[in-house]
Amino acid sequence: MRVHLINPSEVSFGTAVITPRWLYVLAQATPASFGDPVLVDETLAAVDLESIQPGDIVGIGIHTANALRGYKIGKLARECGAHVVFGGIHATLYPEEAHELGGAHAVVKGDGDVIWARVLADCVHQAPQPVYEGGRIEASDFLPARWDLVPRQSYMWASVQTVRGCPKHCSFCSVWRTDGQRPRQRTSDVVIEEIVQLRRLGFRFIALADDNFYPVTLTDLRLAEEQHNTPRLNELKRIREERFELMARLAQLPPDMIFFTQITMEAAEDTDFLDAMKAAHIKGALVGVESVTPEGLKDVYKEFNAAGDDLVERLRTFRRHGVYVLGSFIFGLPSDRPTTFSATAAAAAQAEVAFAQFVTLTPYPGTVDFMRWEKTMETSPVMIAGVPITRRWLIPQALRPKLYWPHPTMSGEEIRQHTQSVWDTFYSLKSIWTRSGFIKSMRARLAFVLISKIYRQMYADTGIATDSARVSRSAQWARWLAKPCQRLFAAPPMPDLQVPGVWSQSPSAQPGLVQIGG
Ligand code: B12
Ligand code: SF4
To answer: CB of 411 within 8 A of CB of 418?
Structure first.
């Protein structure tokens, strides 16, 4: 009996950008008595169904975008006589769907780290339960990933999680509802050990797969202090101290390492934090800008963000402190008007963001937006290919609309065209070249151009293009560009790299570093 873990994807590129972390975490959660699980990432190559034998156990992890492919694999694996188990965010939100459409014997809701061993044991005893509650486990129970199983040459970036959950409550995001608003932060020991293991293997680019790397803001601290809420204040201070401790340890790693994370714009007010990020080689961060107007920010419950000139200034602050920004913008918000597109393109240029993504408002299950959208469909449900549009991930890919949300003043096509043109402007060769001006060496500058082009191909055309020819041309381009990128990201392994000791680098401990262990 073998355990197979499958990350579904309709498109395989032969090489991938980021490791799907769940595969390697669940591999760790698989008891040794089962042997090493077979890990299949379909973004690299499609699953070989002939390798699945009767009695095997097949674990499939799905998010909304790859659920349909996951269900196809689930049904086929069940036909092969395997036990089929689903997990991941989409299965957590729609466990019954995996049973109805994916041939599931069992579905795990929530975190898989602890419950997985029990699911496997139940499958061995031919008695899997339909649903398991994996729950939201404490950070101390998060398992490290089995990086010894990673095909090193296939990925550009590895992914390590340092914190789960986010205290905010943006209307388009499901993280705060599924992962919770209380940050569950791993200790620096376990995080750094994984990172050192990855550098030993030759990974020098690592994505910190966190929802929000900055879970405690200066405003949170000030409010707790004003409310004389000592327990909360102490808790917030502890979380913040641990962030600085982790960053101080990252700072001691080889200087060729580069980390990337996701963070809220509020970090711009906290320049000690930005300086610590820079020292820690966290060179880039996705910042959810979402909208450049106050009305747009209100639309998405993100009024803690800045708009207008203040926004430009905040994003430049990241840059001035050595953290390059991937700005994430949403189009199609109810308050957006035709002028919003050009204003956004201008703000992105002025704010000197290194990269940008311009996504269209898409209702994701588990979000406030999704619930509102579903409600508007109650009285007159829209169907495509016999599927209600509120289950849009079940509509065959080719028939899926590009936009779901009726806009008060613009047509879907208008929004799509404007969005496409903002991508085109931001990623024109001329704009990329101008943006790359800050890079000294010609080789690195060309690498920046290459990465910008691959990013644009992988995300823009495939997402919002309407004709399938353009989508497949885009995928072809991305495949072609991925090979040289892969070489660019590789580094010589450092098998003897040691784990750095524990240092405290909180602003209160300034100046200088204070060694407290290790
Ligand atoms: C890192 C990340 C990325 C990275 C890397 C993706 C990768 N290759 O891994 C990048 C930046 C590329 C990315 C892109 C996107 N992402 Co993303 N991403 C994340 C993030 C922050 C962390 C994911 C992660 O690695 N977590 C660590 C692992 C260990 O946790 P996990 O995956 O949840 O797995 C655990 C459980 O779910 C469970 N589990 C998972 N699978 C299985 C399977 C079995 C059998 C079992 C038993 C258990 C189990 O056990 C695991 C261990 O506890 C999540 C947020 C989140 N909190 O999940 C969003 C998230 C998954 N992304 C999201 C989205 C929307 C996207 C994009 C569509 C964004 C965009 N507009 O382009 C793209 C889609 C890319 C694609 N086609 O896959 C949404 C998904 C929402 C949804 N309903 O599907 C999330 C939840 C964020 C959000 N804002 O809501 N993403
Ligand atoms: S969008 Fe970002 S800041 Fe908002 S709730 Fe989600 S993770 Fe948190």
So the answer is: no
- Is the predicted pLDDT of residue 468 greater than 70, yes or no? no
Q: Is the CB of 454 under 6 A from ligand 2?
A: no
DSSP-derived secondary structure letter, 144: P
- Please check whether residue 416 is in contact with residue 360, taking contact to mean a CB–CB distance below 8 angstroms: yes
- Chain mean position to CA 406: 27
- Structural tokens at position 229: 């809420």
Return left, alpha or beta for 352; rule: phi > 0 is left, psi -120 to 50 is alpha, else beta: left
The three-class DSSP label of residue 501 is: coil
Tell me the two tokens of residue 289: 């800008």
pTM of the model: 0.93
Percent of the chain with pLDDT over 70: 93
What angle separates helix 230-250 from helix 271-279, to the nearest 10 degrees? 30
Q: Tell me whether strands 83-87 and 16-18 are parallel, antiparallel or unpaired.
A: unpaired
Start-to-end Cα distance in the chain: 42
Which numbered ligand comes closest to the C-alpha of 304? 2
- Residue recorded with tokens 């050595």: 322
512 torsion bin: left (phi>0), alpha (psi -120 to 50), beta (else): left
Amino acid at 406: P
Rounded to the nearest 10 degrees, how much is the dihedral formed by the CA atoms of 461, 282, 12, 446? 60
CB 439 within 8 A of CB 283: no
The Cβ of residue 417 has, within 10 Å, a number of other Cβ atoms equal to: 15
Query: What span, in angstroms and rounded, lies between the C-alpha atoms of 3 and 11?
Result: 23
DSSP annotation of 171: T
Whole-angstrom Cα Rg for the chain: 23
d(CA 87, CA 109): 6
Cα 368 to Cα 289: distance, rounded to the nearest angstrom: 19
**410: its two tokens:** 């613009």
Instruction: Please say if the pLDDT value at position 469 is more than 70.
Output: no
Residue with tokens 């040459």: 153
Write phi, then psi, for 321 (nearest 5 degrees).
Answer: -100, 15
* Both structure tokens of 83: 């036990």
Please list every protein residue whose CB sits less than 6 Å from any atom of ligand 1: 18, 20-22, 25-26, 59-61, 63-65, 85-90, 108, 111-113, 116, 159, 161, 173-175, 179, 209, 211, 359, 364-365, 459
Tell which atom from ligand 1 comes closest to the C-alpha of 116.
47
State the DSSP string of 425-449.
HHTSHHHHHHHGGG--SHHHHHHHH
Amino acid at 418: H
Looking at residue 515, its pLDDT comes to 33
- Would you tell me how many other CB atoms lie within 10 Å of the CB of residue 57? 26
Q: Is the model's pLDDT at 316 over the cut of 70?
A: yes
**pLDDT tens for residues 89-128?**
999 999 999 999 999 999 999 999 999 999 999 999 999 9
